[in-house]
Amino acid sequence: MKVVPAEWDDADVQRLAAEQQAEVRARYDGKGEPGTPPSAADISVVLVARDGDGTALGCGALRQLGDGVAEVKRMYVAPPARGRGVGTAVLAGLEDAARDRGWTTLRLETGPRQPEAVALYSRAGYSPIDAFGAYVGAPDAEDSLFFEQSLDPR
User: Fold this and answer.
1) Which CATH number fits domain 2-150: 3.30.465.10, 1.20.1440.130, 3.40.50.300, 3.40.630.30?
2) β-sheet with 105-110: strand ranges across
């Protein structure tokens, strides 16, 4: 497996992102993701995990928030690839990409019905925080969980 850069508009990225959103809606009784949806205009980094045949296994992206802070977006691993370290590899790649840009903090939003995600972020050293940015006071984020990781410089 390799984690490689991609463009937001890449067909595999869009397919995986659509699968992620469908899974969120299924887990949260039809509710979609809170906050502003990511787009090519505001996503700075996109990574895709691919197997030896080039099949896309998972993805993740970063949206710069300013002042050395970025938000992790569209972390997703396709069901057949789960439990193989794909999410860990993508998250580590996003952290490296953030460091390369001089960013010092990553934040993210997830939810209680995504225990796999909560476990991944906790294992990676992310700590619970209060809502941030557009999520503060947002009614669609009332069930959300928020995490943050300070990145050690290289």
Assistant:
1) 3.40.630.30
2) 2-5, 45-50, 56-66, 69-77, 105-110, 145-150, 127-129
Per-residue pLDDT tens, the chain, 154 aa: give them: 999 999 999 999 999 999 999 999 999 998 888 888 999 999 999 999 999 999 999 999 999 999 999 999 999 999 999 999 999 999 999 999 999 999 999 999 999 999 999 999 999 999 999 999 999 999 889 889 999 999 987 6
Residue 73 to residues 6, 48, 70, 132, 139, Cα–Cα distance (Å): 14, 13, 9, 14, 19
What's the DSSP call for residue 84?
Answer: S
pTM: 0.96
Q: Where are the domains of the chain?
A: 2-150
Burial class (CB in 10 A: 0-12, 13-18, 19+), 59: buried
Distance CA 99, CA 106 (A): 10
DSSP code of residue 134: G
